[in-house]
Amino acid sequence: GLKINRPVRDFGDADIDEAIEVLRANNGILVNSDEPAKDGDYIVTKLTFTHDGKVVSSAESETIRIRPTLSFHDGAIERFDKLMVGVCPGDVRTTKVKLSENTPNKELGGKELDAEFTVSAVKVLELPDVDDDFIYEIGGFESMGDFRDAVLDVLNRQLDHEQRKQAREQVATALTAGADWELPPALLERQSRRELQRAILELRRSGFSENQIASQINYLRQNSQAQTAKALKEHFILERIADEENITDEADDYDTEIALIAAQSNQSPRRVRAQLEKAGEMDIL
Question: What do you get for the CA distance between the two ends of the chain, in Å?
């Protein structure tokens, strides 16, 4: 009797064109600019993070895109675009960044750091033309029609991912409503990496780019303990249901998932399987 909402969408030419622009951006080349930085441009900067006057971490040269939120694995800077629009080489910008409670350095969990950016260059993205050479290089496509069909297929896979994700979240919320039992902290910490790897595999098989995956994984890392607790309770309940309903995994299930990951990463299924087995991630799959 459980009712859930399922998002639906019909993709048109405008959606395909927008997705192709993302592909162009992923395959663009950064070139130096003499103009002050604009929203969407890139900066090359030295990064320094300090707490109570002591350097916590630093990087001599990082290339960062100017966008509303700059996400790290254990924190984020909001309104980053407002901070960086207009900078030129030699400019220095400072701001605050609050670390998540789940940062590897437990002493700094939840603390606020001072972040300093020393800009050495401003770069703009030079996009490739969408021509025969481009579509052949990124996927071996022989015609523009085949290329657009492949882009549409990726959009539909991403929609399928969103549909399954939302359905799963709604079902899991109902199933775990009464799961108020505590989980051992050591178990949560041990399972955090596993949950991240599971999320990465799911995003890869659904056609998301590495940049899109990195952005989502940063969010998951910052909320890893709460996410892991929810996922573990869901896992235990679903495992019990699988036992009750006699639901088991089949070899074909693994072949299907590996084929989808291989298609997205332009690798052979054999190579993807070898990588998963070497990393010990077949059980995560």
Answer: 30
Averaged over successive runs of 10 residues, the pLDDT of the chain (285 residues) comes to 89 96 91 95 95 91 93 85 96 91 76 93 95 90 94 92 88 84 79 77 78 71 69 85 93 90 81 90 85
Token pair 């997205």 is at which residue? 264
- Can you point out the beta strands (E) in the chain? 29-32, 42-51, 54-65, 69-72, 75-78, 92-99, 112-126
Query: Six-digit token pair at 244?
Result: 């009750």
Place of tokens 């700094």: 108
For β-strands 112-126 and 29-32, DSSP reports them as: antiparallel
**Please, is 102 exposed, middle or buried when counting C-beta atoms within 10 Å of its C-beta (0-12, 13-18, 19+)?**
buried
**Strand 112-126 with 54-65, pairing:** unpaired
pTM: 0.65
Exposed, middle or buried, 6 (CB in 10 Å: 0-12/13-18/19+)?
A: exposed
Phi then psi dihedrals of residue 198, to 5 deg:
-65, -45
For 261, counting Cβ atoms within 10 Å of its Cβ (0-12 exposed, 13-18 middle, 19+ buried), the class is buried
Please, is 115 exposed, middle or buried when counting C-beta atoms within 10 Å of its C-beta (0-12, 13-18, 19+)? Answer: buried
* Pairing of the two strands 112-126 and 42-51: antiparallel
Angle between helices 185-205 and 210-222 (to 10 degrees): 160
CB 13 within 8 A of CB 182: no
CA angle 238, 244, 245 (to 5 degrees): 85
Tokens of 4: 């859930």
